[in-house]
Specification:
The protein is an alpha+beta fold. It is built from 13 helices and 19 strands. It folds into 4 domains: 77 residues, no CATH class; 169 residues, Rossmann fold (3-Layer(aba) Sandwich), CATH 3.40.50; 140 residues, Argininosuccinate synthetase, chain A, domain 2; 30 residues, no CATH class. Helix 1 links the parallel strand 6 and strand 7. The radius of gyration is 31 Å and the shape is elongated. Keywords: Amino-acid biosynthesis, Arginine biosynthesis, ATP-binding, Ligase, Nucleotide-binding.
């Protein structure tokens, strides 16, 4: 990193770029002149790029020269420094060594995982916004290992405190189960594991911001993914006055090496855990895998990549039966035992994982416009989704089921897009709650080597009547009545055919 600074009282400065001879082409010079009647401040920041050559800064009789493989960034300001884009000396990481800041915030609540990226964000926020940083971690079932030593890491990075909230029951009860009741599936396969987790985390961040008196929130989402939208739409919906800082859209850290260098520079302990070759997101509902060989949709996932489910080929050779109890569209029991939402899902994850249930390989359309390939493991969720749909086959009539299925597509799209607190989703949820009021009963499923198949279903509100559906004649349904029904139902078809034949 090279920086040049020239300060003077002259009325004109001249900056010359001398580029070397490349592949036989003649060298040439670019001259840039800047005129100002009063004193001026000129800062030249050089960042690594493909520009080759050297720079001369001529001011009166003084000259400074920089050589190297750099491109040049100029920041100009008047003598009073009133340009809001100026922030003192800026290095390659977007940090500031001077007294001026990108903005001034009092206190920021940061979504914190303890990994390299969020550890680096803590000092970056303090340096660039002059603020106190409160780290927040939500326990949504990502596992004990990811929660280890977080407070020590956060404070070592410069945070004033770490707030941890156990959101597992709320996550399953108020986010996962409503989506399950709605039958929400994104693009035929995705059971919305990450999509459902973001609004519950963001909602908790808004609550923490109120509790600690913060005026801003921050997250470590990149500018290419869906999560930035999901977090920020929740912030907007629940507290539009909160400022949002998204470092990945501001700083110039471009990868892991840059982040490690920044951490060392600011005495931030770099996490020593082995960096996974995959980008993973885990919660109580699912585990997602992206990156590395998965970026090519032609590549088959490696067998050792999976963490929640065994390979179906290695699953037990004997099937296992599970009975799921459902009340008004919401799961309430497993094998006759009533459990809390989070406990029920946890047990099903263990059972389903043992049998290799719930693996999905899909190419999806991200909200920001690009396609991405991901592998999802959702063992317990796949079992519950199957049970809920099978019970509805007993309790919902044809027209209701068709409307529900159509709305489920829109419901899933809203959740995927981060619009959990949108009035449309909330209104649709009220509809789902109303029509599944009688979706009560139990479903028994057979789990065997990666497959989930139906064994039995029953409900006190079943619309299925054996005395009507039987092939035997009954008092309610007279088979002879079908002739008149068919004639009337097929009348439009018959009339069109008569017209075509001139009858």
């Amino acid at each position: 990193m090279a920086q040049l600074q020239a300060i003077g009282a002259c009325s004109s400065s001249k900056i010359s770029f001398h580029r070397p001879r490349i592949c036989g082409t003649p060298a040439y010079r670019d001259n840039i002149c800047y005129f100002k009647k009063s004193n001026f401040h000129l800062e030249v920041g050089a960042r690594s790029s493909g520009f080759c050559g050297h720079v001369n800064i001529n001011q009166n009789s003084r000259q400074t020269c920089v050589t190297g493989n750099k491109d040049i960034q100029f920041v100009l300001a008047d003598e009073k420094g009133t340009d809001p884009t100026l922030s003192g000396k800026t290095d390659v990481y977007g940090s500031h060594n001077g007294s001026r800041l990108r903005g001034k915030l009092n206190k920021v609540v940061l979504a914190y995982s303890g990994g390299l990226d969020t550890s680096v964000i803590v000092p970056w926020l303090r340096e660039n916004y002059g603020c106190e940083v409160v780290c927040f971690t939500a326990d949504v079932g990502q596992g004990v290992m990811e929660m280890d030593g977080l407070e020590r890491k956060a404070k070592a990075s410069g945070a004033s405190q770490l707030v941890v909230k156990d959101l597992k029951e709320e996550f399953v009860r108020d986010y996962i189960f409503p989506c399950l009741r709605a039958g929400a599936v994104y693009e035929r396969k995705y059971l919305l594991g990450t999509s459902m987790a973001r609004p519950v985390i963001a909602k908790a961040m808004v609550d923490v911001a109120r509790e600690v008196g913060a005026d801003a929130v921050s997250h470590g989402c990149t500018g290419k993914g869906n999560d930035q939208v999901r977090f920020e739409l929740t912030f907007f919906a629940l507290n539009p006055e909160l400022k949002v800082v998204a470092p990945w859209r501001e700083w110039e850290i471009t990868g892991r090496e840059d982040a490690i260098e920044y951490a060392k520079k600011h005495n931030v302990p770099v996490p020593v855990s082995k960096k996974s070759i995959y980008s993973r997101d885990r919660n109580l509902w699912h585990l997602s895998h992206e990156g590395d060989i998965l970026e090519d949709p032609a590549n088959e996932p490696k067998k050792d990549m999976y963490m929640m489910t065994v390979d179906p080929e290695d699953a037990p050779n004997e099937p296992e039966y599970v009975e799921i109890g459902i009340n008004s569209g919401m799961p309430v029991s497993l094998n006759g035992k009533e459990l809390s939402p989070a406990s029920l899902l946890s047990e099903l994850n263990e059972i389903g994982g043992k049998h290799g249930i719930g693996r999905v390989d899909m190419v999806e359309n991200r909200l920001v416009g690009m396609k991405s390939r991901g592998i999802y493991e959702t063992p317990g969720g796949t079992i519950l989704w199957t049970a809920a749909r099978e019970l509805e086959s007993l309790t919902l009539d044809r027209e209701t089921m068709q409307v529900k299925d159509m709305l489920a597509l829109k419901y899933a799209e809203l959740v995927y897009a981060g619009r959990w607190f949108d009035p449309l989703r909330q209104s649709m949820d009220a509809f789902m709650q109303k029509i599944t009021h009688t979706t009560t009963g139990s479903v028994t499923l057979k789990l065997y080597k990666g497959s989930v198949s139906l064994a039995s279903r029953k409900s006190p509100y079943s619309l299925y009547r054996e005395d009507i559906s039987s092939f035997e004649n009954g008092l309610i349904y007279n088979q002879a009545d079908a002739a008149g029904f068919i004639r009337l139902y097929g009348l439009p078809t018959r009339v069109r055919a008569m017209l075509e034949r001139g009858i």
